[in-house]
Specification:
The protein is an alpha/beta fold. The chain has 17 helices and 20 strands. The protein is globular. Bound molecules: adenosine-5'-diphosphate.
Length: about 500
Amino acid sequence: MPPRLRILLVASEASPFAKTGGLGDVTGALPRALRALGHDVRILMPRYRGVELHAPDIKTIVPRLSVPLGDRIVEGALQETETAGGVPVYFLAQDQYFDRDGLYGTADGDYWDNCERFVFFCRGALESVIELGEVWRPQIIHAHDWQTGLIPVYLRTLYRDHPVLGSLATLLTIHNLAYQGAFWHYDMAMTGLGWDLFTPAGIEFYGKINFLKGGLVFSDLLTTVSRTYAAEIRTPEFGNGLDGVLEERAADLHGVINGIDYEQWNPAKDAGLARPYSADEPEGKAACREALRRELELDEAPGPIVAMVTRLAGQKGLDLVLEGLPTMLDAGCQFALLGSGEAHLEEAWMREAERYPGKVAVRLGYDPALAGRIYGGADCFLMPSRYEPCGLGQLIALRYGTVPIVRRTGGLADTVKEFDATRRAGTGFLFDAFASDAMLDAILRAVAVFRRPEQWSALVRNGMTEDFSWDASAREYALLYKKALRPTGPKPSRRSR
Ligand code: ADP
């Protein structure tokens, strides 16, 4: 049995307590997989409004947690519960910051005080570790995205000589480089960090404080959620301005593909489906397709249902789909979209649904139950993303025998293999150029195979028998945690300045 690692996973969201996207899925599922490998992993996240719905038994363990915020002290509290899978969870409570309707903002935009909220969260996380003291002492902090980016900065500066925190190792995972947490420089005072850090070699980026950049510079190791994205973000095209920093840290930057929870996503046990099915007994999928057609008021038709379940955001390539829709429908496809997000995309898609009744179905909103029925009932799952760090939709689709049609970028390139009819190998269809012609070409290839039921069954089966469960990725993380841990003793500051 390898030695048990003590890992504190710090994130701004974790399923089931709070989730706005893939980040919450990952931080919800990875701890359980690490625990199954024997590691002692715990989660620390903000106590948002409503988390108690998923954790009836929350205990306050530190009623007054004093967190320095510039020249003030802000009081919070540390609370504790456990996930259904037995993973301990610490909530950092501070109602003025976190007892709100949203996690990061409203439909009108980000909360104005997000810098303050997440400075508090980062510093509060470290103060929590100090308070926990002998009760539980992590060896490594696994931080996620910009909301936790200041944690490695604090550890290598303000807390460098601290007896508990000084030897903590850090690993930061980038889930989406486009979100960086950039705030105006007046907020430097609130961070408590010296102005000597406000330089291009530190946390400054085009005149602003940049949380993510801080994490990229100061964390011991960096990961992102697929190998291809790890390589892409070192280039100007995908680097969002941080490609230079990432190139400098290339030796410490690793790609670890996300998994999905194979218990939660299982068409053989999914009570939401019209009929269960599996790779060995795939017949139930036809009933799921018919049920979905009825639910979405799509016509009876011999062609495939092509679906998307997605945030409606520029990243997701919906502009290509809008452009290619008439050709897709001419080829005999029907199109189903479940999504929420940017108002102009919502409006554009509602117009398409009106224009093509019985052929195009659009449902706006965030609806996990309907998402499940779409994964179950659709034939193809479309992801024409501009960029895609990992993508979970295609992994769920593979598990549900819904053939992914994806752009060859990021995690999509790493998880979907082009179908080769002669060898009956491969799991989906890929295209390279970010252009509707290229996308349509892939869709037409899919339609051609769909018309040959034997080939299609082989393709569906190939996808359903792939393994994108968390086990393999959790093992990779465990190896990286070990790599991040160095012999005991305070760590030097990453850069001399
Ligand atoms: P991202 O994190 O960029 O939004 P991912 O593919 O990594 O994209 O993860 C998206 C997750 O959120 C998937 O599990 C997907 O099924 C789910 N999802 C996205 N939009 C919706 C929606 N409108 N309703 C329900 N689930 C959704």
